[in-house]
């Protein structure tokens, strides 16, 4: 059975993303950066230049609507520039002092030092030798509008990254689901031969019984039918196929189905395990192991699906 997805639509988005944008506002270069990793809920941390910190809540709300889920970091920092749009000179001594202070604070709070320690120190306006007084000036609506536009640009780049990662996830899921379905087809061809082999083995063993042993052939036939029915996996195969189709149908829905895909993967796993418990034939057991391997790949990637 083939599964079809519309190649022009992005149904799957990754929770991993990165976006960055910069602009010049007055005598400052302002940079917005957003990055995220997988998480069950939205966990957003922000580092915003003190000039814009009073309106942090507005930014958090704007960013949260776009991210939905994931462990995310958002930074908005400013760097003074001169009339030629070059970064303003900074005080090496002041930068070193701030780096030491941040390290000391991390030790006191028993926290790991951030990887971008120097970048954080250089984002502190007091490090720079000129234009310090502009840091304390009021933020007008025109400037704030530029900040919001800058944030949106970073979020758009972030979304593009998520879409690219989502395309790869979508291909992984489609391929794995397709391979599992092929294995189900193989089990369907093996099953009648397996049942007949079981019946033949039982009959051969009965024929080897001593002639003086008497048994009810009608009752034996009933027990044989009951035993073979217990080995039958047609219901499990049908349910497994339904789950596989449901998984693909869910991928075709709007983005944000990661949790649902995880639940469906659990149901797929249950049916595969039931198939394994009923498999008393080597080829079927091998196929069950291969299906579990494919399902494990799906489970790993579902954790990173929005």
TrEMBL record:
Domain Endoribonuclease YicC-like N-terminal: 12-170
Pfam families referenced in this protein's UniProt entry, alphabetically: YicC-like_C, YicC-like_N
InterPro entries tied to this protein: YicC-like_C (IPR013551), YicC-like_N (IPR013527), YicC/YloC-like (IPR005229)
Domain Endoribonuclease YicC-like C-terminal as annotated: residue spans: 188-304
Domain of life of the native organism: Bacteria
Cofactor(s) needed by this chain: a divalent metal cation
A single MF term (Gene Ontology): RNA endonuclease activity
Keywords: Endonuclease, Hydrolase, Nuclease
Similarity comment: family membership: Belongs to the YicC/YloC family.
Name of this chain's protein: YicC-like family, N-terminal region
Organism annotation: Porphyromonas crevioricanis
């Amino acid at each position: 059975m083939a599964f079809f997805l519309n190649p022009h639509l992005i149904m799957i988005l990754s929770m991993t993303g990165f976006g960055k944008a910069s602009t010049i506002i007055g005598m400052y270069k302002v940079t917005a950066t957003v990055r995220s990793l997988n998480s069950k809920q939205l966990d957003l941390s922000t580092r915003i230049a003190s000039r814009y910190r009073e309106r942090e809540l507005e930014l958090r709300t704007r960013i949260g609507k776009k991210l939905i889920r994931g462990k995310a970091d958002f930074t908005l920092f400013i760097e003074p520039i001169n009339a030629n749009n070059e970064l303003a000179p900074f005080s090496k001594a002041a930068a070193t002092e701030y780096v030491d202070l941040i390290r000391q604070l991390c030790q006191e709070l028993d926290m790991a030092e951030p990887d971008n320690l120097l970048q954080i120190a250089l984002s502190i306006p007091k490090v720079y030798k000129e234009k310090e007084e502009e840091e304390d000036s009021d933020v007008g609506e025109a400037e704030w509008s530029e900040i919001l536009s800058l944030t949106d640009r970073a979020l758009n780049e972030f979304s593009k990254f998520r879409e690219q990662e989502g395309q790869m996830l979508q291909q992984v899921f489609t391929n794995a689901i397709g391979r599992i379905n092929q294995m189900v087809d193989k089990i369907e061809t093996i099953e009648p031969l397996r049942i007949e082999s079981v019946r033949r083995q039982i009959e051969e063993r009965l024929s080897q019984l001593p002639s003086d042993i008497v048994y009810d052939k009608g009752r034996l036939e009933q027990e044989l039918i009951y035993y073979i029915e217990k080995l039958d996996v047609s219901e499990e195969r049908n349910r497994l196929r339904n789950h596989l189709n449901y998984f693909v149908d869910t991928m075709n829905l709007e983005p944000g189905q990661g949790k649902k895909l995880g639940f469906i993967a659990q149901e797929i796993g249950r049916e595969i395990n039931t198939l394994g418990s009923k498999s008393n034939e080597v080829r079927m057991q091998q196929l069950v192991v291969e299906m579990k391997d494919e399902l494990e790949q799906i489970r790993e990637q579902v954790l990173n699906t929005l």
